[in-house]
Amino acid sequence: METEVDKEILKSSGAELLPDGRSGLRIHGWEIETLRGTILTSLAVEEWEEKLRTSHLPEMVFGENALVLKHLGSNTKIHFNAFDALAGWKQEGLPPVEVPAAAQWKFRSKPSQQVILDYDYTFTTPYCGSEVIEKDKEAVEAKANTKGEASLQWENCEDQIDLAALSLKEPILFYDEVVLYEDELADNGVSLLTVKVRVMPSSWFLLLRFWLRVDGVLMRLRETRMHYVFGKDETPTVLRENCWREATFQSLSAKGYPVDLAVYSDPSSISQRLPVIKQTTQKLKIPRKV
């Protein structure tokens, strides 16, 4: 899904493609890259289940897929991957969404199996990305130390992502979308986590989206947007907006919206119909040097 860009446009924008066939580019002190691999093997599934302390994983987990944005001056890395997202799912531990009795049989792997949905089979995650500082070839996780300090910390703020600026016609220097995991909920809907990135001469922008549809029951949309404007501030600052939306099919029907599943196949087209249940805006000030 990558875009092909004229080399002259890249050069005039201060950007260059990554070498050795890698997918991404370098621009104004950032290295932005997408990684792709295959679905987890059966052995990898066992390893992940052991690490996550669970016996359940989505049908399709792309363990090698990732989006990585690295600020070269400070070795600050913002990245998105399936393992950290599933760790968030496990930690949040939401109760299972109730499935109509007539559809529960679809979750059986064997005809005689008893269906017990005692876990969050939707794999809903609060994940909004991972941050790390790489120093001396070792990754130092951005977590609080014993003194309560943190190497990287998102701060609540009143700033908003400039959507008007993002709507301006600019050359797209790089665009890609990566699937982290997906599950069809035994033909009862869809659970999908993706991340897409767009790089322009003036900024980069990304959207991490968790989309859930349990047919006839519930829709849930959790989105994280990040935006960074090149050279805008003396201190490099990334803005992050998190927005969680959710609605039952019953509540949408009561408002007069159609309940045809075909209408709800694309979250982009129906997101405004889902009420906001949580919304935050934060910023991350990136140190210039480690």
UniProtKB/TrEMBL annotation:
InterPro entries the record matches: Phosphatase_reg/MetRdx, TIP41-like
Name of protein: TIP41-like protein isoform X2
Family indicated by similarity: Belongs to the TIP41 family.
Database matches in Pfam families: TIP41
Species: Camelina sativa
